[in-house]
Structure formats: structure tokens, C-alpha cells
Amino acid sequence: MATRTGKDPAGSQVESTSKTSAAKRQELAGESSLPKSLRIDVTLPEESFEVPEDEEAVAIEETPVQAGKVLESNLSTTSIELIPVVPIPDPESERSQTRGRRNEPAVPQTPEPTELLTSDRLLERNAIKKPKPEGFWQSAVYSLSLHLVNLGDSKAVRARKEMDARISRKFDAGTRFIAVLSRKGGVGKTTISTLLGMALAEVRDDPVIAVDANPDRGTLAERVKRRSSSTVRDVVSNASQIKSFSEFSNLVTRDETRLDVLASDADPTVSEAFDAKDFDAVADAVSRFYSIAIADCGTGIVLSVMQSVLRRADALVIISGGSVDEARLASETLTWLETNGYAQLARNSVVALNTATPATSLVNLDEIETHFRSRVREIVRIPYDPLLATGAAIDFRQLRPLTVASARLLAAAVADGIPLADGH
Fold it and tell me: Mind listing the pLDDT tens digit of every residue in the chain (424 residues)?
């Protein structure tokens, strides 16, 4: 049995096709193969840099310099002056440097007076012990708590202390003159002058004097318990010989409130009236020893002594009664002042409305106040008090509480308007 060998036409075709494909892949792979290493040579142009013209002046060598020092340079410019630069402060840095210590106070531009060295300014807050409170319940709580609970003063005590602060207002060096005027007699001018002086003297630490400037015979000295027989005439005669406050004190009468009173000349045989020259001599002597001087003037506003008083006056008190004619005369006084060069003094004045004069009960006092409020700075009513009505010496501490309160209010109102210095 014979066996025939041969190739399957289909198989041969497949094998041939496979060989052909492999050969092509090998050929393609051989043609696209890359070298194992690659080197690229890139040549850059030479570095070239020119300094702009606007930068040549600051293009200097990197050499440490000090502010404000002139350096030599190889540039076209021969020298460069460096301006010191002020660094901007860093708030965080400043806070870290000042943390834990007190900020230094600013130095005043002008020398400070000694009066500014007060306890409130110099003592630490925790070093100032709160004073013992005044008032029934406030004192009781303070005592029962063994001084641990301090409620402060009562409302009435606070009001009193506030009034004291107004009355004791501090002024610069020099004497402040207060003129008390009235063109009508019998309206209580001298009485109110005394009340004003007592209210000021009782509270203030500096000396206060009331001078009887009536060119005729004044009664100011009769409103205090007189202890001296000297008068304004003695001051005029011995002005050049008075060297000290103690020597001047021998010529005045001191009240229990510490008000000094200088009496007018009561000698009926004296024919020479108290004039402007005499008042100037008294005022010059008073200015050496007193901080406040009250001039109890007469009714003649055109007299020479009145002109001297007004030239020195820092404040005015116009007295008005509660009747129609008294109010009109007080208003006419203001008109005269306004038309004779004292308009500012008149506008800054205080009207003391004496409600103890006759016919006051028949007059609308509110309308009088309304009129004066349009012309002056303040109006204060002075009530009726039997101790004042007697015309005898005044004991300030024996007056009715309302009378004392009115006198203190008048003193505060006057002090409020007194300029500190040179009209300011």
C-alpha cells in the first residue's frame, strides 16, 4: 500500500502568509529603530546687558554704606549722596516693646504752674482712699460694713459739694473786683453785698474783703459785728506805710465766715467825699492782700468813684426790688452801662431780685425775671428773712436755710462769670 505525502494547499498558503508578515515586521523594525543615546548641541548667543540711562545714577557697587555718606563710583557720575530713609514703624513691634510698661506722658510746650501738681493728678487711683460718705443711710452702711461698703455721698451732699466747687472756683493771680450796684436806695444793696461776701468767704480758701465804696455814709460795717474803728480814710492816709497783711488786718473787721469788712468814713465833720482817687488808693492796697474784693457802691452811678469802680470791675451784681419802680431803675442801670462802654460787663452781670421789699406780693416776679433774663446772664431771688429785716448785724449761720441757699447760689453765679485772667 503506497502512501502519498504532500502539502495541503490551504496550509501552505497560511504558512507562506505568516512568513511574509514576520519578514515585513522585522524589516520595519529594523528601519525604525533609534540609537540608544542622543546628543543635542544648542549654541546660545553671547550675554549682552546694557544699563539703562535712568538707572546709571544708582547702579553702584555692592559695598556696605552708611546713611548720609558720599561714595565714590566708577560710573559716569562722580558721587552719590544717600538720603536716610525713615523706616515705617511696625505697630506689632511697638506694642511688644511698650508692653508691660506705662506710656510716657507728653511733655508740655510751656512751663506748668505749681497749681497743676494736684493730688488727683499725681496719686495712683488705688492709692486714693474714697472719703467717708455723708448722709444717714450712707454713713450707717459704711459703719456696719466695717468700712468695706462705701455707697458715696447722698444726693443732697453731692449737690452741696458741687455748689462749693462753683463758689471756690480758682482764678489766676490778681484780685477780682465785684461791684454791687443799685440806683435806688432801700432795696437791700448793702445786705446782699454782705450775704455775697459771707457766702464766698465761708467756702473759699483765699481772703475775701467787702469795701464800703459809698461816697456818702455807707452802712456796710453795721451788718457785721464790728471790731475795728478804722475806715477807708485810714487806708487812704496810711497806704504807703502798710507793708504786710497783718498791718492791713488791723484796719478791717473779720466776720465768723472769715469775711473782712472795710467801713466807710462815718465822721459827720468830714466834708471831703470819698472820690475816685480815694477808691484807687484803697483798691491798690486791697490788691496786695486779697483775691476777691466786693465794692458796695452808692446810688450815684455817674459819680467819679463809680467810674473808678467800673474800670476795675470783673463782675457786676445789679440789685432790683420786687416793685415796678425798683425793677425799672435796675433795668435803666443796665441801659446806662450798655451805652457808656460797659455792654459786655452788663451782659455778664447777675441780677439779685430782693423779694423782701414792700409790694412784692402784688407784683408778678416771673415777669420781672423774664425781662432781666433777656439782658443779663443770671437772676437769683433773695427771700425774706426776719433776721435780715431787722437791719442788725448778720449771723450767717443763723439765717433760714433758704436764705443761705440763695446767698450761696448768688456767690456761685457770680464766680461762674468772673474771668480767669485778662478777660478770658
Answer: 444 444 454 454 544 555 555 555 555 555 555 556 666 666 666 666 565 665 555 545 555 555 555 444 444 444 555 555 556 656 555 555 555 555 566 777 788 878 778 777 777 665 556 778 887 777 777 777 777 778 777 888 889 999 999 999 998 878 999 999 998 888 999 999 999 999 999 999 999 999 999 887 789 999 999 888 899 999 999 988 999 999 999 999 999 999 999 999 876 556 567 889 999 999 999 999 999 999 999 888 878 889 999 999 999 999 999 899 999 999 999 999 999 999 999 999 999 999 988 778 788 999 999 999 999 999 999 999 999 998 899 999 999 999 999 999 999 999 999 987 654 5
| Beta pairing, strands 70-72 & 79-81 | antiparallel
Burial 364-400 (b: 16+ CB within 10 A, else e): eeeebbebbeebbbbbbbbeebeebeeeeebebeebe
Q: What is the rounded distance in angstroms from the CA atom of residue 199 to the CA atom of residue 405?
A: 9
Q: Other C-beta atoms within 10 Å of 126: how many?
A: 6
* CATH number of the domain bearing residue 239: 3.40.50.300
Grid cell at residue 218: 455807707
Greatest extent of the chain over all pairs of C-alpha atoms, in Å: 201
Judged on CB neighbours under 10 Å (0-12, 13-18, 19+), 166 is middle
Domain count, the chain: 1
Range(s) of the domain holding residue 274: 170-417
pTM over 0.90: no
Q: Are 315 and 169 in contact (CB under 8 A)?
A: no
Classify residue 263 by its DSSP letter: B
The answer to whether position 78 is within a domain reads no
C-alpha 79/C-alpha 71 separation (Å) is 6
What single-letter DSSP state applies at residue 353?
E
Residue from 318, 332, 320, 409 nearest 368 by CA:
320
Angle between helices 189-203 and 155-167 (to 10 degrees): 100
**Has residue 389 been placed in a domain?**
yes
